[in-house]
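FYI - complex with adenosine-5'-diphosphate, inputs then prediction.
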Amino acid sequence: MVEEAFDRKAVKVDVPTERPEEYYGELVFNRRKMMEYLPRATYSALINAIENKQPIGRELADSVAEGMRRWAIDNGARHYTHWFHPLTGGTAEKHDAFVEHDGEGGVVEEFSGKLLVQQEPDASSFPNGGIRNTFEARGYSAWDISSPAFILDKTLCIPTIFISYTGESLDYKTPLLRALNAVDKAATKVARYFDPEVKHVTSFLGWEQEYFLVDESLYSARPDLVMTGRTLMGHESPKNQQLEDHYFGAIPSRVEAFMLDLELRAHKLGIPVKTRHNEVAPNQFELAPIFEETNLANDHNLLLMSIMEETARRHNFRVLLHEKPFAGVNGSGKHNNWSLGTDRGAMLFAPGRTPKDNIQFITFIVNVMAAVHKHNGLLKASIMSATNAHRLGANEAPPAIISIFCGTQLSDVLDKILKNDADLTDLRSKNELSLGLSQIPEIMRDNTDRNRTSPFAFTGNRFEFRAVGSSANSAAAMIALNAAVADQLNDFYEKIEKRRANGEELVDALLAEIRTLIEQSKPIHFDGNGYSDEWKEEAARRGLDCETSAPLIFDAYLKPSSVDMFKRTGVLSEVELEARNEVKWEMYVKKIQIEARVLGDLALNHIIPVATKYQTMLVDNVSKIKELLGNEASESIEANLDTVKKISRHIGNIKKTVSEMVEARKKANAIEDLRERAIAYHDNVVPAMETIRYNIDKLELMVDNEMWPLPKYRELLFIR
Ligand code: ADP
Ligand code: MG
């Protein structure tokens, strides 16, 4: 590849002279590479297995492995790894070289079908919520043929699921594939009412990844960022986002060089990233791809998150994927744009031109509404974590209550259907908004919701699940959503079939069930301001889940309605659900524990010594001035004494609260039950951390700037 240097402020990015279509997918074992490297029969057998979701036999695996190895070696790879998504979040890999003994004292490069298809990584260090203790110590990783292998850092990466010896899932991918399968089956049955030729329904995901960048040297000087991914202290900068000048503003050139590099690498890995822009907060940015099938889209998001970290380092930045790295400015989310489409090209959440299209559209919309209503607590649990807890309900992100925004057009149609006077002929033309002035032509307005306060919004042809956290594996949300919708569609199908068996016409049966669902799911529909206090009260009246404590929110996974739904759809068994919750509570405890330790250390060993030194300086100053000027300087003496007193108070509060926090931790750690321990951390450790932070942030405003031991927000947040 001929490359020309692209030099911006000493950051060099190699810009290929080829166009994206030439290097796109260069590092992916896609169909084109398969065609080139696999024998013809192997190629068709593999494609057949992928398309029909069939397992592959040993002989086929051997042949595929051989071709894959040759391709990987031709592209500089020396190692291979099974790439999977453990419950810690993130991705896991264990690299092996291709070398095998040749029987004559040397080695040959080999890769067998057995190694491609299945491995036994030493799994004891991955969280399993007790599954492997109860059952069997081993874990297996097995190739997910629906997601193509790729080369990352000279290593052939094979996307795999990760399961226990007895078949319980120990990862995110296994239940995600099950949920996608469930929604495919259920939605296909219903979609056939409108098009009998439909064979499959695919779930699509387009994620929007938000993130912060920080200069590497400043990052390294903040132990809290290094250890926890967020600032545990720091007073707001005088200027942050109040001028609203960052969103869609010019991207600083250093950042642009990083983005360009990242996009190149993403495109070579077949990740179709497309949009990039500044976000609302200073130093906050967003990257979004063209949407893809959900499993592949999610693999791509996880892969992107890991190459982001690496690419940022090359540009002397650190990327912060934490949901709330800085208090006082917006946090980061990962909007999950989600839709369903048939193999016949119909997008099921998009209004159409004919009455038939539109009954189909409404059918799928109301089933989603019903599923989200029934499982609103579960969906909230699916996006909750110790880190996302800082963002939700923080008057910038979606509130910690799940509701659906429909927008005026859709709301209007739903109302009319209930009143039995809907004209379903052409919902698309209803996009026209009348301005009420006859001489001005009606303008078409995108049906997209601009109400950013909704956690789950209908946006014209898809739903946007906005409560997902920026550091999360979106699979958790996609498992819950697709499974819940599958279950609801199965129920809907049964009800329609019952009506038809009683002699009802299909259209009448559909409209009758649609009306019932609109009526039943009314409580989940909310187009107003999700940040308002009135909504919290109203939501409680409507019976929506209003819990705000993360450890208690996780309980929703174990409610009978969730357990039954996951069981019926075959997505997760009760054992798996229990194990996963154990992991959630444990992760919650560990995250807060680490933060509390770092905060305690910073408070006692960095902040208090400096504050004390400054206080002593002031006291010295007071006595010297008194000696020199006596009562003449009473004003400055009083002012300084006042500061001395204030500093004393804050130091005292910090010391006292750190001791209380340590005590609270000790007490919590002694609790055997993980759920109870997580609750204790939430109820007793977190509030202490907030008090400590409050006092430190006050000190930051008083102590000599030169002495302050940590970079401040105004430095961290403005890249030049
Ligand atoms: P926004 O105005 O919310 O920023 P964009 O047009 O940038 O919207 O799209 C955001 C994401 O939604 C992109 O990843 C895009 O590919 C995805 N998207 C668009 N249409 C669909 C769809 N029908 N299903 C799933 N994702 C979609
Ligand atoms: Mg969006």
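Residues 216 and 223 are 12 Å apart (CA to CA). The two ends are 32 Å apart (CA to CA).
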